[in-house]
Each structure stands twice: as C-alpha cells, then as structure tokens.
Amino acid sequence: MNPHNAIHLASLKMDDSASVVSVVSTSAKFPPGEPNNEWTIEELVHWSLSQHHAMAIEKTEEYTESLRDYCERECDDIMALHSMAIEMAQNNENKMAPSAAASNTDVALKSPPKSNNNHIEVLITSGPHSGSKIHLRPKPGAPCFIGRSKGKKFIKNGISLHKDQEVSTTHGKILVEGWTMGLADGSNAANKMGHAPKFYFVDVGSTNGTTMNGDLVEPESKVLLMEGLELKVGGSMLKFILND
C-alpha cells in the first residue's frame, strides 16, 4: 500500500471512531461530574461506556500519529534513494567515454583492495547494555535505526536498546552520505578522491532527547559522526568508532 494512502486510511478510521464517541456522548443519559450514590445503574453504565470510548479515541489518535510519522520518514527515505539513483545514473552516462584510457580508469577504480570504512562500530559505554559493541552498515535510503524496539530493523542492522526505559521506541537513526556507485566498498582509492562516505546521527523526535557533551541535540538535525564521538541516548552512552 502506498504510504500516503495508509496515512489517509488511518485518518479516516480515526474520524469514524470519533463519530462513534460523539454519538455516545450526545445520547448518554447521566448527570455531569463523577458518579455518586444518587446515580442509577443505567446512568453509571452510560458514564462508564463514555469513558472507555474516550480512552479508545485517545489511543487511536496516538497510533495514527505514530503511523503518520513512520510513513513520512519512510517516504522521505524512499524519495532520497530515488533521487540518488537518478543522479548516479546520470553521472555514469557522463563518465562513459569511448576511449581506452577512460575504460582503464574505470577498471582501476572498481578493483582496489577493500578496507572497512563502509561501516561504523558503536560501543555502548554506559546504561543497561554497557559493554556491547555493534557493527552498523547504513546505506543510502536504508538508515540504521536506534531505539527501544526489538523489531527486525533494530536487531538486524540497527541498535535495540530494549532494556533502556528512557529510550523511545524509535529514538534516532544513522544516515550515510557521499556514497558513490563503484566506490561504496570504502576503498583507499575512494578516500583519496574525496568519495569516502560520511555518517550522521539524527534524533527523530524522541521523548527524552539526545545529548552531546551535555547539550541537547535538536530533533531532525544531522550530527556528523567523528572518531570517538559520544552521544547519550536515553540512559545509554554511545561511542562511535569509524573504520578508516
């Protein structure tokens, strides 16, 4: 299903639920205020039903907002990947020259020995998961997520801080930029040509926020990851190790 259609559908469901509560509220026959000994059983039942419906609407609104945020983030990642694919295709067309020299250059660029700077390591130095080390390989359009969730994208190529109650379900993500087709293996040749990828951390709007050197990181802003940089996510301190 198209993400935007999913958002619209969720909104419609929330509106329908709101209509139900509206009907219950207007047709309910019970005095204002809290129940007391003078209320009848019928009035108490109507009041109880209205409370449960109001609670259901509140939960529905929270779920809908969460779904909307998730879909918007996924759409942004998809569009970024699409734009990058178009740009790379155009660059490849421009680089394709009918000369043997250009052909030899392409071969040389594609086959240098590989190093490890296409991934980063994260060492957890404090918090419930202290001592853990995680290897991450973010790709264009496929960031690595950090949060309390135990979902697949947090376990397989992300960081699941499920024991840290101060961390949001989806707390932040790690992006990569400067990735170039044919040089994404992090080769030394890529570094010399200035194509080495750069990694960024983004707080996606977590409840308790993220701090760097005691300062709060602004949500949705990119923090360039440097060797040894430390970020506090919830109750966990993360130290980033770049592989040059």
Automatic annotation (TrEMBL):
Residues 144-217 form the FHA domain. This is FHA domain-containing protein. SUPFAM superfamilies: SMAD/FHA domain. Pfam families: FHA. PROSITE patterns: FHA_DOMAIN. It comes from the Eukaryota.
